[in-house]
Amino acid sequence: MNEPIFLSPSFHERIWGGTRLKNVYHYDIPSEQTGECWAISGHKHGESIVVSGEYFGKTLSELWDNSPDLFGFYKSDRFPLLTKILDANYDLSVQVHPDDSFAQNFEHGEWGKTECWYIIDCEEDAEIIFGHNAQTKSELIAMIQNNQWDVLLQRVKIKPGDFFYVPSGTVHALGKGTLVLETQQSSDTTYRVYDYDRPSSSGDKRELHLEKAVAVMTVPHVAKKVEPKVWEMDEATITTFVEDRYFTVYKWEVHSRLELVQDQHFMIVSVLEGEGTLEVNRHVYPIEKGQHFILPYRIENFVLNGNMSLIVSHP
Q: What does the alpha-carbon distance between residue 176 and residue 286 come to, in Å, rounded to a whole number?
């Protein structure tokens, strides 16, 4: 297949969600509490579906299982990454994710979850929780038991364009008024540490997972510094945010034209701003903000024309 694979997202309602996925990207969201757009996903909890071309109507996991040549015969029993757009209309719960070893032992073969965030937009005084101040596990447990959340949790001011790498074991939470593109391992395992004593839709407090959370937390917290590498061209800018064992993530800013070689097993692309065209093998595809697609293995050269901002990743 020498053409891009365009995908439709799945949407997930959350008590902290809002309407920005509709207002900004014109998605047909299920309610005014829609928190997550699973944009490129082969996970069973929310699959993307091909919207055009030879594989119209198939799920991403079907393509992964039945057409491995599209992905360069990448060695994995499942599609390895998951791209989301998150609308944090209210504060998310403070949470932590396990690594692969813990998840496979305690979560029925699920993967762990290392992720990263690109801040698309946020309120002027927005912040995230990123890390904690405990130096030992015993100190961590004591602070949790004594509800010393203001002492325990580290808060970081954010602005549009910021990027954060969030490895498994990192205590974290998005703050209200934040719109984020998240690239992560294909996993849906989350351990809640603190949820501001909020009730769920049923009126009860949401479940916490403190025993597992404490077991997987990195103590003391060590933040991996993100040092973007920027490549300036006449008509485009490429920024490499992270090159990790699980994923590499870029931002492509196309000012007029960007011609590249697809030299990976596959590339995952999300259009965050603007519009233009994608040219592959003399075929021209119109693209605009809110679209998501995969450049499969057999595509070699491709050209982006227009004025666009895209987040791109590959394993």
A: 33
The SS3 assignment for 287 reads: strand
Residue 51 near residue 8 (C-beta atoms within 8 A): yes
The answer to whether 12 and 48 are in contact (CB under 8 A) is no
**Pairing mode, strands 153-157 and 163-166:** unpaired
Q: Which stretches of the chain drop beneath a pLDDT of 50? A: none
Check residue 205 and give its pLDDT: 83
Residue 254, amino acid: V
C-beta of residue 88 within 8 angstroms of C-beta of residue 177: yes
Return contacts of 238-243, CB within 8 angstroms, 24+ apart. Answer: 241/116, 241/118, 241/163, 241/165, 242/116, 242/163, 242/165
Residue found under tokens 């325990």: 152
Helix or strand run (H / E) with residue 293? strand 292-295
- Reading the block at residue 299, the tokens are 């595509």
Q: Identify the pLDDT of residue 152.
A: 98
Give the list of residues 6+ apart from residue 222 with CB closer than 8 angstroms, or none.
Answer: none
3-state secondary structure of 24: helix
Catalytic member of 192, 198, 257, 298: 192
Q: Helix H segments across 179-309?
A: 210-216
Under 8 Å between Cβ of 270 and 39: yes
pLDDT score, position 41 = 98
Query: Is residue 192 annotated as a catalytic residue, yes or no?
Result: yes
Distance of alpha carbon 40 from alpha carbon 82, whole angstroms: 6
H or E, element range at 302: strand 301-314
